[in-house]
């Protein structure tokens, strides 16, 4: 595994650097395989990045957008990661509707939605049950408790190793999430983290030893590339790494 950590001076620089990296992976994937598959993170940090992507002139028909996790709310709910990415990026460009793969959240049972999305991934990547497809890039954020995607501390989702998609749990609220092994299969995993409130968790995550179940981002160790792009307030203690 190739692991790169970069600390950028501010949010604007973090957005520019993140965009550069994504565009580099996008053009390489399209050149090598004719398409680019990306899984998006939610929350607030990636919104400026999605707005920056929307301003690019890209071969949208070759780009396939998935989500690494989703809150279990309707797609038009203010908390929906799908809605945020649509408003910031996807509604602004000519990306074919068939290239946009939101996590279903309308099923009564979240487990049914998890199974449906797993089936959608298997159909898209033409993988067999139990086989983990390799996304070109999985974009991740990190909470101040060290969670990523919807893999929260000390939850059952952290232990799921035989599925692509599972049901996460935040304070009793269901989420749909990629599993650790699916994330670790990616060609490139990119964490984009901002804010001083993330510093304590980052110290735990970058410590040589620690409690993986307490800080789930420690579990993200892809076979290929792992990038951490941090703004100064989040990453100022990590320069020495
Ligand atoms: C979500 C995300 C989650 C997010 C972190 C950081 O659905 O909320 O996927 O993993 O990346 O909670 O969120 P912020 O960027 O808002 O700090």
Primary descriptors:
7 helices, Rossmann fold, seven-stranded parallel sheet, globular, alpha/beta, three-stranded antiparallel sheet
Describe the structure.
Its EC number is 3.1.1.31. Residues 10-228 form the Glucosamine/galactosamine-6-phosphate isomerase domain. GO terms for molecular function: 6-phosphogluconolactonase activity. Pathway: Carbohydrate degradation; pentose phosphate pathway; D-ribulose 5-phosphate from D-glucose 6-phosphate (oxidative stage): step 2/3. It comes from Crinalium epipsammum PCC 9333. With 241 residues, the chain is an alpha/beta fold. The protein has a single domain (6-194, 223-234), classed as Rossmann fold. Helices cover 29% and strands 21% of the residues. The protein has helices at residues 11-33, 47-54, 81-88, 110-125, 180-184, 199-205, 232-235; strands at residues 2-8, 36-40, 63-67, 69-71, 100-101, 137-140, 165-170, 173-178, 188-193, 225-231. The strands form two sheets. Strands 1-10-9-6-2-3-5 form a seven-stranded parallel beta sheet. A three-stranded antiparallel beta sheet has the order 4-8-7. Helix 6 links the parallel strand 9 (188-193) and strand 10. The longest helix is centred in the first third of the chain and has 23 residues, at 11-33. It is globular. 44% of the residues are buried. The model has no long low-confidence stretch (mean pLDDT 97). Bound molecules: 6-phosphogluconic acid. The site of 6-phosphogluconic acid (6PG) has 15 residues, from strand 4.
